[in-house]
Design a protein that fits this description.
The chain contains no helices and seven strands. It has 119 residues and is mainly beta. Strands 1, 2, 3, 4, 5, 6 and 7 form a seven-stranded antiparallel β-sheet that branches. It is globular.
Length: 119
Amino acid sequence: MKTDSLVLFSETEYSGTAVVSGDRQKGVGYYNSSSSTQSIRFQTNDYAGTIVIQASLNSDPTEDSDWFDAYTFPGDSAVDGSTAITTDYSITLTGNFAWIRATTNAWTGGTIDAVTLSY
């Protein structure tokens, strides 16, 4: 089983597009592991928008309908993504997910330095 960091988003600067999808990566459930814990790290610089972590239980998700929202960054309910933030923030995501990806929503400026997955 892979135990190092997998890239969901590499360094990406805002280009005028509000919705962008990063690369899908194998989640802990892909390996039929008894573990269900994975860590997601968000590194942003003046980022305005939200990043949605999506997961799939499908062995080979090919349609948008194969994915569901598992976490929205920033996770603080007082922050709606309209204020630019610079942060290095990590969460623990619990679920036996086969695949995980990150997508942006309402992205209006700034840079995603990286969004990584580890387990």
